[in-house]
Amino acid sequence: MDLTLWQYQFRIIMLGDSTVGKSSLLKRYTEDLFLESINQTVAGQERFRSVTRSYYRNSVGGLLVFDLTNRASFDHIKEWHDEVCERVQPHKVLFVLVGQKSDRDAFEERVVSREEAEKLAAQLGLPYVEASAKTGQNVRESFELLTRRVYQGLLSGEVELQEGWDGGAFGYCSFEML
Ligand SMILES: Nc1nc2c(ncn2[C@@H]2O[C@H](COP(=O)(O)OP(=O)(O)O)[C@@H](O)[C@H]2O)c(=O)[nH]1
Ligand SMILES: [Mg+2]
């Protein structure tokens, strides 16, 4: 019987407009913490097109994040998606679409409906999940969904393991963030 256990490390990127809550999602996931006014990533740093190829290098998965209360951040999702897909060719990055700040739904601040987000996700061929870094709702699920999606992609040959990429052979996930 072969009892070999494989551990994979996937490099994952988090993409989306500034202030959608990427840093907050990661903080909630890794430390189970939420800060109302988290140290802001330098303003403007996350502008569309400001990302370089090296940022995506060796990434096999990504969370595409928008803010359910910010229409522009939703409108930019397709641009983020297409930009990355174009840049990583001939490789592929597998995404999960995340509608962030779902806690604000309770205050009727939502401006992007679940239906239209699901429609965009279907168009892009991605799973969709609504999450809140503030309450923790679906945060773990978002990362796990992505990890499972990448693992599935590995088995199906959609993404490939590359020899000798930085980060080493052991561990589960490594994160890159703008
Ligand atoms: N209500 C609410 N606010 C959030 C949530 N996630 C982040 N924020 C707030 O949104 C702002 C921007 O978050 P940040 O994580 O820095 O966004 P980033 O620029 O995408 O990394 C901060 O003031 C956060 O406290 C959330 O799930 N719900
Ligand atoms: Mg940030």
Automatic annotation (TrEMBL):
InterPro entries: P-loop_NTPase (IPR027417), Rab_GTPases_membrane_traffic (IPR050209), Small_GTP-bd (IPR005225), Small_GTPase (IPR001806)
Annotated keywords: GTP-binding, Nucleotide-binding
SMART domains: RAB (SM00175), RAS (SM00173), RHO (SM00174)
Keyword Glycosyltransferase: no
Pfam families: Ras
Domain of life: Eukaryota
An example molecular function term from Gene Ontology annotations: GTPase activity
Family according to the record: Belongs to the small GTPase superfamily. Rab family.
Protein known as: Si:dkey-34d22.2
Protein's organism: Lates calcarifer (Barramundi)
Taxonomic placement: Eukaryota, Metazoa, Chordata, Craniata, Vertebrata
